[in-house]
Amino acid sequence: MYFAKKNTFLQQPSTFQVYNASAGSGKTFTLVKEYLKVVLTSENIFSFQKILAITFTNKAAGEMKERVLSSLEDFANGKENELFNILIQEMNVDKKIIQERSKKVWVAILQNYSAFSITTIDSFTQKIIKNFAYDLGLSLNFEVEMDAISLLSQAVDVLISKIGTDEKLTKLLIDYSLEKTDDDKSWDISKDLNEFAKVLLNEDDVQHFRKLVSKELEDFFDLKNKLQKENIQTEIAYKKLGVEVLKYIETSGVSETDFAYAGEFLKHFQKLTKLRFLKDEDLKFEGRLNTVIEDSKNLYAGKASLEKKQIIEGISEQLRGYYYQSKELYDRSYSNYLLNKITLKSIIPLAVLNHINLELNSIKEDNNIRLNAEFNQLISDHIKKQPAPFIYERIGQRFQHYFIDEMQDTSVLQWQNLIPLIDNALVQENSSLLLVGDGKQAIYRWRGGKAEQFINLASQEQNPFHIDKKIINLETNYRSYSEIINFNNSFFQHAASFLQNTSYKNIFTEGNKQLENHKKGGFVSLTFLEKEEEKELEKIKYPKKVLEKILQLKGSFSLGEMCVLARTRKEGVAIASYLSENGVDIVSSETLLIQNSLKVTFIINLLKVLQNPTDEETRFEVLYFLHQHLQIKNSKTSFFTEFSKTDFKIIIESLAKYGVSFEVARFYQLPFYEKIEEIIRGFNLVQSSDAYVQFFLDIVIEHQRKGTEISDFLLFWEQKKEQLSIVAPKSANAVQIMTVHKSKGLEFPVVIFPYAELDIYRELDPKEWLRLDDSLTPFSHFLLNFNKDFEDYGPEASFIYNDHQSKLELDNINLFYVALTRAVEQLYIVGNASVSKKGDENIRTYSGLLINYLKSIGAWNTAKLEYEFGFFQKIDNPKPPKYPTETQTEFISTPKTQLNISMATSSGYLWDSSHKEAIEKGNLVHLLLSRIFTESDIEATFNHFMNIGVVSSKQKNALLQTVGDIVSHPDLSLYYSSDVTVFNEKEIITSGGKIIIPDRLVVFEDQTSVIIDYKTGVFNDKHKLQLMNYAEIIEEMGYKVMKKLLVYTNPTLQIKEC
Q1: pLDDT at position 13
Q2: pLDDT at 884
Q3: Which of 266, 416, 444, 587 could cysteine-pair with 734, CB 3.0–4.6 Å?
Q4: Which residues contact 1052 (CB under 8 A, 6 or more apart)?
């Protein structure tokens, strides 16, 4: 609907719009404008509930929400801006109506914020999965795991741990390791497998691995044997022909030197006799020999004797016949031979991958986890085919309007899953679909994004809906100054001429003609560095040049206005390290890692030592930190000598004179979060606000919600520490360093892009799936190594090869485009000056393309290494931050003893309270028994808790007596023997999603069981009901419960059977 001047409205047909939005063209502005048009033209103030706007990142979703709400608030308050005037013009409506409706819609959104559906595609798919969990066979309390890499690492560890216990699997992994050593790679396969296994998470690969789940190891080995036999037969056929021809030549009385071109004809047949040892390109039927045969030229050498020439001439027809026979054999079998050869090399790795996938699935099932990455496939398999009204009913909202941002990064599965819902909406009137994207900024293929999907949608070629599509180009660049716009227009139109795929070429030649805005001027600098003779100088030549540029800019721009973009993390680290060493303040993902904080590292090390007092190396790290932190005057040597072998509890007590107030026994009495706060307070780690420590505490509290022990957290930390970082304020006056991928959607006054020397076709261990011959069942496709020989494996392989190369070209040119379009005012590109002796550049690289471009405009000079476009002059003044940063100067931490509240945890003990000593003793007995499986564990358990200060010497005898009485009791001793399987305090999840934790579950070989629960005080019916509940759940699991025992750890031991 829309409001006319007379306040009337009409039904409107559904619309489908696609916006081609090049860099800086105002796509977010367009999305917000179109969103506001929908909510402000409807009579229903709750029409926002029928809009689903999907963005690529949480940040983008937050920005769009903020812009919609702030615009509505401004309009409601009578503020008129550019957006307001555009809406008035496009909607043909009175200002007063806009003002009134804006206020009503703004209030309605704030009062119903949960229905304000501007979200990421991942959040939307999770919402669907949660509402269909029962239908999908998922438990209602399943957890979503975002960090798939950590889960993969666990799967690899589990697989490797089975070496020696599973004979077939052990053989497989040994074969894999041997193949790696044959390829001159390390025999240590753990790191290799962790990297290799990432393919299991790729959307395009998942469908193939799902078909492999049912395959046994025997299937892989059977295929290996089959292919080996085929290739042996091929080798025999080639050798047979080769030997026959060589024998015929020998009996004819001529030798190798009698043939033209150093015996080329004879050598051709010699190759046939050793096919297995040839390189793929060694055997060819093109070139000089083929021309000699085809043109019936002389086969003999000019220097051969007349007699030999006559002999060869006499048998030339027979020899040519043999050549054509070998060519026919080659055409018939060689590509299949090569395919078998590469498949054989891939069988062992693929079998290993399949087993990692099986372990991954087991971990997910055992831990009630689902990967965020697999939701799209789940929807595609089970939900997409459901009627759209049914899906809407389940998710609680029915959408009429769809806005999809960054469409070029939306995966095929995500788009296919949305189509049924969108199609259902578009059959109605007053519904709409708006897609915004840019094929030139598609840089997430590795996450499932397909540039070609949006390229097709943004052309007239593809329309999955029944209504007409309108394609709109956002032609003006509102971000950059004119010199940068014109340089990028000109350069990328030139670079596109080297792209093989026509549709990819067109998005740059036709879709990259951006118009200037009112901002005139700007500056572009191209610098080419020559190769340094010394290795160390070559290593730092890019960081050194970046520093030089920053120092030149420092007089005109603040550090906070500069950003250095790197293709890889490794390059970013090199730049960051060099700038830091030279006194330049920086902000990068590496500098923001929480693990970089010495205080956080100390906390982690202290936890490790408390867990394992014999860890000498970590103890040394703790002492080293304390010597500096506490400003101990004694020399490091004497300090380390004094405490290096001392009991850790005594060390802590000795540090009291330096202001340390930390009690090990008290530490173990606290919930986990309070343990960490106790360390911070006890060692006086923080006097004022510390972002690293504060973010660390946020991580601790988040992790504690799962219920944690120190060992659990330390394992979590080791797995995640490389990804955990603080968030830096935008107003920080420091040079930003980030990867090109992270810079997407951002802009900076000054951008420096070093290392512009990428080889566009270079990949790290690429692979492609190829269809196998039907005779090779049960396998339809195989994952093969991708290289220049791939196209020789048959017509389908040739098509895949060319398609792969075309996509590689586009992806890397796109990456370059994203990097160069982040700049607002000044752009610096630093590349490699390498050209051949003939002066030819390598157009496979970024630097080569830049040099080629300079040649095309007549600017290249071999003696000149720096080129400029525009004038070096600062034009714009930095805008103050919209939300100024407030600095928290005080670190707030209050001991729980000063509060009337405490944090509930799954492992809290009744410590540090006024409860009776008997209860404290009962809790200690409970804690000790949780570590004891058999009688032989008693001594080690007591030693452990005494070493860490939980059990004192005074308490030991009484506790030892009680524990010994329980373990050796005639009615209980069987349950503490080595003949049974014991589960101490193991969480068991019920079918209803609840968690029970029996103190001791004893399982016998015949699947019968006994439940033991430790209590203090007197018998209570609640205790009995608790055991009855445990028994019911355990019997549901298939274990018949023979006994249910309550053990009361009072001064007089009591055993009650329920």
Answers
A1: 87
A2: 53
A3: 587
A4: none
User: Which residues have CB under 8 Å from 457's CB, separation 6+?
Assistant: 18, 407, 435, 437, 463
Q: CB-based burial of residue 46 (10 Å sphere; 0-12 exposed, 13-18 middle, 19+ buried)?
A: middle
Q: Looking at the DSSP assignment, which residues form a beta bridge with residue 966?
A: none
Please tell me the distance from the alpha carbon of residue 641 to that of residue 653, in angstroms, as a whole number: 17
Q: Rounded to whole angstroms, how far apart are CA atoms 290 and 327?
A: 10
CB 281 within 8 A of CB 791: no
The span from the CA of 218 to the CA of 731, in Å, is 61
How confident is the model at residue 157, as a pLDDT?
A: 87
Which residue in this structure is represented by tokens 């054989």?
344
What pTM does this model have? 0.77
Kindly provide the residue ranges of all beta strands, DSSP E only, lying in 350-412, ordered along the sequence: 369-371, 401-404
Helix axes 502-509 and 795-820, enclosed angle (nearest 10): 20
Q: Which two tokens stand for residue 429?
A: 């009137």
Contacts of 859 (CB under 8 A, 6+ apart): 867
What confidence score (pLDDT) does residue 615 get? 85
Alpha-carbon distances, residue 622 vs 477, 614, 722, 1024 (angstroms):
55, 13, 21, 48
Q: Which of 52, 134, 143, 129 is nearest to 395 (CA)?
A: 129
> By the 8 A CB rule, do 680 and 687 touch?
no
Lookup: tokens for 600: 């956080």
Cβ-contact 271, 259 below 8 angstroms? no
User: 46 phi and psi, to 5 degrees?
Assistant: -100, 20
Which residues of the chain register pLDDT less than 70? 1-11, 140, 182-188, 688-689, 705-708, 728-731, 878-920, 948-949, 989-994
Q: Which amino acid is at 463?
A: N
User: What pLDDT, in 10s, does the model give residues 604-627?
Assistant: 999 998 888 888 889 889 999 998
CA distance 1033 to 996: 9
Q: What is the three-class DSSP state of 761?
A: coil
Q: Give how far Cα 932 sits from Cα of 536, 979, 1041, Å.
A: 57, 15, 22
Q: Are strands 470-474 and 1040-1048 parallel, antiparallel or unpaired?
A: unpaired
SS3 580: helix
Cα separation values, 926 from 625, 983, 1012, Å: 36, 14, 12
* Angle between the N-to-C axes of helices 672-682 and 710-720, in degrees from 0 to 180, rounded to the nearest 10: 80
pLDDT at 200: 87
Compute φ and ψ for 632, nearest 5 degrees. -70, 130
* Cβ burial 751-774 (10 Å sphere, 16+ → b, else e): bbbbbbbbebeeeeeebbbbebee
Q: Which residue type occupies 938?
A: I
3-state secondary structure 775-837: HHCCCCEEEEECCCCHHHHCHHHHHHHHHHHHHHHHHHHHHHHHHHCCEEEEEEEEEECCCCC
Q: What whole-number distance in Å separates Cα of residue 537 and Cα of residue 203?
A: 42
Q: Identity (one letter) of the amino acid at 348?
A: I
Tell me the C-alpha distance between 536 and 519, whole Å: 42
In whole angstroms, what is the distance from residue 49 CA to residue 108 CA? Answer: 10
How far apart are alpha carbons 261 and 206 in whole angstroms? 52
Using the CB atoms, write b or e for 632-654: b if 16+ within 10 Å: beeeeeebeeebeeeebbebbbe
Query: CB count, 10 Å around CB of 260?
Result: 19
Q: What is the DSSP string of 288-347?
A: HHHHHHHTT---B-TTS-HHHHHHHHHHHHHHHHHHHHHHHHHHHHHHHHHHHHHHHHHH
Which residues, 6+ apart, have CB-to-CB distance to 628 below 8 Å? none
How many helices (H) does the chain have, and how many strands (E)?
Answer: 36, 24
Coil/strand/helix, residue 242 = helix
Distances (CA, A) of 574 to 419, 530, 591, 721: 45, 19, 12, 20
Angstrom distance (rounded) from CA 860 to CA 849: 12
